[in-house]
Structures are given as structure tokens and as C-alpha cells.
## 1
Amino acid sequence: MQDVVRQFVNLLFPPLCLLCERTLVQGEKFMCTHCLASLPHSHLHEQRNEVLAQKLSAVLPVRFVLSYLLYQKSGSTQKLLQFLKYKNYPEVGRVIGRQFGGRLQEKGYGEAFDVVIPVPLHPKKQRQRGYNQSEEFAKGLSEVLEIPYTTDWVIRKEASSTQTRKSRLDRWLNVATIFDVPEQEKVKGKRILLVDDVVTTGATLEACATALLEGGCKELSVGAIAVA
Ligand SMILES: [Zn+2]
């Protein structure tokens, strides 16, 4: 959109903060400065999210287990994730990725990874939604950490039927074989940061991590926006 048109549209429909609905001022995107500053950061878990670490199998050799925000039902994290996943706001993922990237950079993680990889959505689901929310998160991280992100090193093969109403074992079996690393030579020797939006059972993330580890990456870390 041309600047003049955008200014006119903004005049008629000023963009509002997604969280508190205050009118945004110049330089603010999707969230006002106040809401951005009061996001429930998981300070204590920034370096290692134990809940997430436990969700991933104990034998999986994961280097860093990172998460950005605390998740509370009806809290601002959940609200943001709803915009990101269900209300066609892919840019929110990028904004969150940049914020998290800044924090990781401060803590010295800038040198810890060679590449960021989002957990792939099934192609059919991605077509319906129009984007992969984890990929948007990866883009924001990649920008700030100044490391590339890629979406073709690990692919998703088939739709897993719905996860609810299945036993833990069934869920695990259901997703265990859906990821594939088509060209192992790309993955070999790399330090990968695998990222997901919100982790619930951890089964999908674990299956994707396993595929990359079997593909021969040197080190695998995981990062999530939040752990439910
Ligand atoms: Zn706000």
C-alpha cells in the first residue's frame, strides 16, 4: 500500500492494540508499548524450560530448551496466539520472534545456532490458513539473531488425524513418522534451533526433532513461543 493511502486508511481506521484496544501510535505494531512491556515473559525459564524439557523424551539429546512467554488460560499470551493462529495475523508471529530474538541475543545465544527451522504444518493445513505461524516466528528470530531460517530441510509427509481423544501412545505413534529429512547432507554438522508456536503434548515437536537428529545434525535446540 502506498504511504499516502495507508495514512488515509489509518486516519479512518486507526490500528488498535490487539490486547488492550488502545489506538496505536507511530512505531507501534499490533501491540502498544505498554502491553508489549507487560507480556508475561518466562524469565526463569529462558535458558531452560523444564516443562518443555520433560515433554520431550528424556533420551532426546536436546541442547537448549527455550520458551518466550508464560501461558495462562485467558491471559495475553493465549490472546496473542489466537490472533496468530486463527485470526489471520501472521505478522504477530514475526513481531514476537523479533522480541524473543532480542532477548536471546542479550543472553548470548547469537552464536549458538547455524539455522532456524520452523516445525512444518501439513501442506493442506497451511493452504487453508495461508501461512505457517511457526515460520513467521522463525522469520522474526532469524532477522534479529542474523542467522538464516529454512523450511525445506525437514518436511511433513502426511496429515495426522486429530490429536484429541487419543491416548499418549497413540498420539506418539500417530506423529512419529510424519517428518522426513529429504537431503541429509544439508543437515549434517549443523546446529539447529527448531521452533514451534505453542507446545501442548510435545509429540509433534519431538517427532520433528527426532527426524533432524536422525538426519545427522550436530546439535538440536528447541524454542517455543509458549508451553501450554
Ligand atoms: Zn495495549
## 2
Amino acid sequence: MEPWKIELSRVDWSAYECACGERGHLGGDLQRIIEARSLGEWGGASLDGHVEDQSMVADVAVPAVGVMMAALQEDLAVPTRSEFMINLWRLVDGEADESVTEEIHEQIRDGIWLIYREATNGDTETAMEILECVERDPARLEHFRTAVARRLSKRTR
Ligand SMILES: [Zn+2]
């Protein structure tokens, strides 16, 4: 069994408020999005309006980030990986209680090499935005920024 599935099953999803006002559904939605091999298999599931809404971060984002980080180790379909990267970026930069923000940043720092791998092999721009919010080693971040600079300029051309 993949670690993300065990991490997902560890969470009592109904204990956390979702940005949509409901509770309990996000665990199942995350599972569907992670297991999907294409966007068509999401069955209408989405993170938008649930982990955050108009940059207000919901409590459920904390366990959701744990599951997303565990899932990023796996060979995810392209739309799933990009949904997770975009949402992680929104969450590190969103409005929330300081404790919620700190917990989210902490969980991403725990898996920081997954984000660095994305910076060197995937969505460089989004990965660097996330790292800018969470990385505590400015010298390392600067070194990587220089190393991936060509990938960034390629994207904007
Ligand atoms: Zn919801």
C-alpha cells in the first residue's frame, strides 16, 4: 500500500471544516484525484473551494497538505500533480491563523526535496514560489534559483 493511502486513512476528515462549509468529503475526493490517470477520472472532484476559497485557507488544508506531500512521491498523472502544486502554492501564500500556516509550511518543509525535484524537473515556476514561502535556508534557495534560471526563462519565452 502506498504511504499516501495510509496517511489519508489516518485522518478523521469530518473533524476539519472545509471551505465549502461541509465536512468529511475531502478524503474521498483526494483519493479519487490521486488514483486518477486522467482528468476524466476525477468524477467532478476538485480541491478548489475546499482547501481554500478566495485565498482563505480552510482547517482541512492541514491534513490535505500531508496527503498531497505523501502523494507527490508517487508517479501521479499530470493533471493531479499540477493540481497539487497549484494548491500547495495557494495554501502557503493564503490567509489563515498563524498556527495553520505554520503547520502547512512545516509539512512542506518535511518533504522539501519533493518540491526541489519539481523545481528541477516539473513546474519550476510554481515550485520556486512555494520554496520562497517555506525554505528556511536562503543560501540554498538562491543556489537553486540560479541552477533553474534557464528553465524559468524558457517557460516565459
Ligand atoms: Zn468541501
## 3
Amino acid sequence: MDIEGASAIVTGGAGGLGAATARRLVSLGVSVVIADLAEDAGGRLADELGPAARFVRTDVTDESSMRAAVDAASESGPLRIAVAAHGGPVAGSRILDRSNQPYDLDVFRRTLDIYLVGTFNALRLSAARMVEAPALDSGQRGVVINTASIAAFEGQIGQSDYAAAKGGVVGLGLVAARDLAPLGIRVMTIAPGTFFTPAFQMSEEDAQERWGGAIPNPRRMGRPDEYARLVQAIAENDYLNGEVIRIDGAHRFGPR
Ligand SMILES: NC(=O)c1ccc[n+]([C@@H]2O[C@H](COP(=O)([O-])OP(=O)(O)OC[C@H]3O[C@@H](n4cnc5c(N)ncnc54)[C@H](O)[C@@H]3O)[C@@H](O)[C@H]2O)c1
């Protein structure tokens, strides 16, 4: 797909992976709506990126909020790229704690709401807008790119809610690609390993020291622009559809 002149929406666009994606898409001639809860970071990034970028305060779990962000994205061109990269730190603990008390059901529900329901909300509303854009000569209209995690496959101790949500995002991908295929809309899923972003809430040096050494090659955490370059490759290559791509330096999570 030729993406120049298209419009994109990036949920979590003020965060680590989302901001790198917004930067890269703008550099490729795409107009980007940074759809995020974080007003300060989102506003700063929009200022940095100039007129091709706009921050719209968005809660992905809320129908009307997400609709407004999609509306804003389609004001600056046909919406052809929707990237779901929202989320953030998840505390998590074992299903039974040290005193054998069960994991809080509301916390579990909330994690699923943000990571899985929010991703589906962004996907369905973006697709509904993409379908209104004229098809390109290739018959394609656009692409939805969701973010899972390698925790979808190798969930670690204490990650029951996060791994379940990300497993849901993986399961959603092929169904969505099949559902939307007749409309010329592709759906892809990226499963990142360990990328240094604000979600780690520590300095890059400390994070690299703690996690970098466990990654086979390159022996370091991922860089957000490496994720963004995968987004670009997926958007540009029409034959990528209905698949999950791990981007993890050959990392496989152990139990902890
Ligand atoms: N960083 C990693 O190592 C890694 C690995 C695997 C998967 N992921 C996934 O990638 C995505 C982005 O992670 P990141 O590391 O860039 O995180 P991040 O914390 O840097 O950014 C996430 C952004 O999402 C926003 N957000 C949170 N809740 C939201 C909501 N309800 N509506 C809209 N925006 C909301 C936050 O304000 C933040 O700006 C997450 O889904 C995460 O699970 C990250």
C-alpha cells in the first residue's frame, strides 16, 4: 500500500512504541492522530511533529471517545492505518497470593478491558471508517495493526490477566483479517519482546542491565523505532495479513 498522503490513528500514540510509530509515519508523509489519555506527552509530541500530527485525548475503552478520535483522523485524509499501541505498566501477581487469597477479579477485568476490549474497540471503529475510503487500485483500503506481546505465548508468573488479554489479541487477529478481507482491510498483529519504553518506569541504563542480557541477539532491549519500522513494513506490504509477527531478538520468556 502506498501510504503517503494517508491518515493514521495510533492509540497509545504518546507512549513508547506509539510515539515511535507516530514519528515514523509522519516522516513518511502520513497524517497521524495521537490517540492517548496522556495529555502532556501527547500534546508535546504533536507540537514536535508539526501540522501532520494531532493529539486527541482518547480512552480506548470508551466508545464515544474512540469514535471522536477516528473522526479526527479521517479529517486529514482517508483513514488507512490504525495502530493499537496503548497500555502501560501492569503490576500483576500470582493467581493465589502468599496467603492463598485469589487474584482480584476487578483488576483482571480492567486489564482485559484496556488491552483486549480497547484493542477491539479501536479495530472495529477504525475499520468502519476505513471502509468508507475509496479502494486503491490494488483493491486495498487499509490495515489495522494490533500489538500483542510474546507474553501471549509465554506468559510469566503473575501475568495471568496480561497474558490472557494478549492471547485474546492474538486470537482476534485471524478472525478480523477474515471478516474484513472482502472489504480490502488487512489485520496484522505484532508481538514485541522487551522494548525500552516509559512503561518500565526506570532509566534505560537500569532497564538494559536488568533485562538486556537475557535477550540472545541483539543482546539488548528493543528500540521503539524497530517496532515502528515493522509497522511501516506491514503497512506497505499488502501480502502481510492475518499473521502474528514476533519482534524479540530470539527472546523466549521463562517462567519469571
Ligand atoms: N515495551 C515493551 O516491552 C512491550 C512488550 C510487549 C508488548 N508491549 C505492548 O505495547 C503496547 C505499548 O507499550 P509501551 O511499552 O509503548 O507502553 P507505554 O506505557 O510507553 O505507552 C502506552 C501508552 O498508552 C496510553 N494508554 C493507556 N491506557 C489508555 C487508554 N485507556 N486509552 C488510550 N491510551 C491509553 C498511555 O497513556 C501511554 O501513553 C502495550 O499494549 C504493551 O502491552 C510492550
## 4
Amino acid sequence: MTSGSQSRMSEPPSQAPAAPLDVCITVDMEPDCPPFLWTWRGMEEGAPKLLDLFARHAIPATCFTTGDSAVHSPDIVRRIIAEGHELASHGMTHTPFPRLDRDKAKWEIETAAQVLREFGEVTSFRAPNLLFPNVYLPILENAGFTLDSSQGKHKQMWWFGQIDPPPSPPTSLTRIPASTTSSVMRLPAVIRDRFLRSLKGPVVLFVHPWEFVDLTREKLRYDCRFRTGVPALGDLDAVIRLFKNAGAGFRTMRDLAAGAA
Ligand SMILES: [Zn+2]
């Protein structure tokens, strides 16, 4: 129900048609809201519902999966591959990289790659908490990664605007930042939709499987727990419809990078 494509009859058609908006839905497949819970309800109960939702909409997603999650829920990883989504890496144990020395960072990246590549091709990476020191980029390059989505446009200025991340040092990796934080999806629709419509492409949204189980009574930060469970699934469904109605094309991160090359 958008009116963005309407034009006034009195205005000459002076502009070329806008290119279709690219949207990537990304899922960080991990334990429940680390470092607060570390249980697995999201992978066990939330992830199947998410994959069902993507199947109903016939859209691909990119699933940044921790190695530990693949060990815990191999059937979910097999579904990710079988249903045409991109399997990607979210590190091994969801330990923030700024806390790791070089050897431990290398272990996280290489061990997760080894575990995940047992299931299929893995060439995209996102660091836990969108925190990845640039000095570790060569470790990703040497481990066969070609895309990094460890930056967030919202990190610089919450949600009052999209600010590009600082310039990247020279790297062979394509760097595509997340557009916004996941809890935006669960805001009241009137605020959320206005914000989402303002995002410039490519729009990289992300969610977590634990948002789709009811965590409202858990001892968590408010932004992690509000409207989790069934309402969150309805919210994501509405967001997908919003972009579909705007004529957006849904792509995996790998396909987006291939198109941009
Ligand atoms: Zn994460």
C-alpha cells in the first residue's frame, strides 16, 4: 500500500525509472541472545518458523551461522542449503572478535569454516555483534571468504540516518554493511515502515532465530525481548510485504556481491 511510485499528472516524466531496490534478509543463526542466555530455543523453535516464512514468500535469505549452531542443529543447516538460501559464517562460538588475539581469531574463522563447509559452499562472513577489527581481514581472505558484512550503517548514528562505515583498508573482500539493527523490525509499524522506506539500497536487514520465540519474560535487555515470539514473525512478514509491494528484489548476499562485481 505504498504511494511512492505515483507521479503527478502535471509533472513531465523527467527522470529515468529507478533501478529496483535490492533487499537482503540475513539471519544470524546463533544461541539465544548471547551473551545473556546461551540456550537454543531459537535454533530449535524459531529457525524452522523463519525458514517456513521465507518458503511462503519464495525469497532467499543469507544465514550467518555459528559453527556451534551447525553442530547443535545440523538439520536446520541442511534445510538452509536445500531450500536455496546462502549458508554463511558467523564465527565458531559467538565470541566478540575485539576480545580475541590473532591466534584465537584465526581459530574462530577457520574452525567455523571447516564445520560449515561440510554442508556446502561458504564464502560470506559476519562477525558477532557487528564488531570486526580490520587487522583480521587478511585471515578471512586466506580462509577463502569473499564477502564481509561485519559493519553496520546504524552503528555510527543509531537510526536517525544511514551513515556509511569508515573507509575500509585495501582488501579483496566485498564489504556490504547491515543497514539497521534487528530490533527495528519489532517497532510499531507506523514508525518502522517510515524508517525502512527511507533506507537506501542495498537494504541489508537482519534478524535472529531467538526473536521468533517468546523471550518477553526472560531477564534480557528490553530491545532483545520486546514483541519476541509470534508478534515478531508477523512483523517480519509485514516487512517482507512492504518491500515486495515496493517492487524490491530479494537476493542473497553472495548474489548481491556477484551482481555488483
Ligand atoms: Zn550474532
